[in-house]
Write a structure and sequence with these properties.
The chain is of the alpha/beta class. The protein has 10 helices and 12 strands.
């Protein structure tokens, strides 16, 4: 749907400093489909792919399905640590990264690391997939420009979602591909399900153009910031001896790390029997140096629900 592509191109240039034309924007059924397309088009069986550790299971699954050899790269308070492995592992065909709000740790890739990543990708002729997860919901300070917007070489594919920002039932995402690749992505996209529903695309185009999207982002940003504060305060009040966490400038979840090792997957299974959904932190690792804890979403819960959830978790851990 050409009008939505044009609207998204305008939005990305203005709000995320993405360098793109309308023709470079491809609408997908969510960010996951964009990840799947990138995995199938850009890598061959056995290609080394660097991914964040801990990292997003959806990206891991798409890359494994395409035959990638996954190489975990540690993440610290400044984001992806290329220097930790650059001389010790095979050079990558592709690097997957979520720089605005690393999932699940919540860190933001520093400007220095962004420039380092671009330089490394150029030197090694590696593709970089930038998953701009949660970039819209930043609560303090100015957001850093997208990696794609900083790139002087056409080796970055930018991915975003509208499902996460609005409502999961709206299965719409997008990608910005280099000009020399967009035709290949469009063809591959047509083999999957032709295109997302045109009516949904048209409605969303009007929603953005008429200013409702920007208003929604502002309203949700304030709401989510308040809910993060509630969750953070409640964790500190009831679980500070067992779990530690750092409030984040962006995102829709907090990651709580266990101060001493615990079986977070067994605890999550116990919690599910009581109706409490927990995401065990250890499940986000693929290497041997795993950490235990929980990824705690707060966006969809009010104050009472967040307090009740923490109390249930406290009972499970006591």
């Amino acid at each position: 749907y050409a009008p939505l592509r044009e609207t998204l191109a305008d939005y990305l240039r203005a709000c995320r400093a993405v360098q793109c034309t309308t023709e470079q924007v491809l609408i997908t059924c969510g960010a996951q489909q964009a990840l799947d397309l990138c995995s199938r088009l850009l890598i061959d069986e056995g290609d080394p792919v660097w991914i964040e550790e801990p990292g997003y299971p959806g990206a891991r699954g798409a890359l494994l399905a395409a035959g990638a050899e996954l190489i975990p790269v540690p993440v610290d308070h400044d984001g992806l640590c290329i220097d930790a492995i650059r001389d010790r592992v095979p050079k990558p065909r592709l690097i997957y990264i979520s720089p605005s709000h690393q999932y699940p740790s919540g860190t933001t890739l520093s400007l220095q690391r962004r420039l380092q990543l671009l330089d490394f990708g150029h030197q090694e002729q590696a593709w970089i997939i930038e998953d701009d997860y949660d970039s819209e919901f930043r609560y303090h300070g100015r957001p850093l420009a997208s990696i794609q917007g900083l790139a002087s070489n056409a080796n970055v594919i930018y991915i975003g979602t509208l499902s996460k920002v609005l409502v999961p039932a709206i299965r719409l995402g997008y990608m910005v591909a280099p000009k020399n690749l967009i035709a290949a992505f469009e063809k591959a996209r047509s083999f999957v399900d032709t295109h997302p529903p045109t009516v949904t695309q048209a409605a969303l185009d009007d929603f953005i153009r008429e200013g409702y999207f920007a208003s929604h982002i502002r309203r949700m940003r304030n709401l989510y910031a308040t809910r993060q504060e509630i969750l953070s305060h409640t964790l500190n009040q009831h679980l500070h001896e067992i779990l530690t966490h750092t409030p984040r400038e962006t995102g829709m979840h907090l990651t709580a790390y266990a101060k001493t090792a615990l079986d977070d997957q067994a605890i999550a299974a116990q919690a599910a029997q009581t109706g409490l959904q927990l995401r065990p932190l250890s499940s986000y690792f693929i290497g041997p140096n795993q950490q235990s804890g929980f990824v705690l979403g707060y966006a969809g819960f009010d104050k009472n629900e967040l307090i009740t959830g923490v109390e249930q978790l406290r009972q499970l851990l006591s």
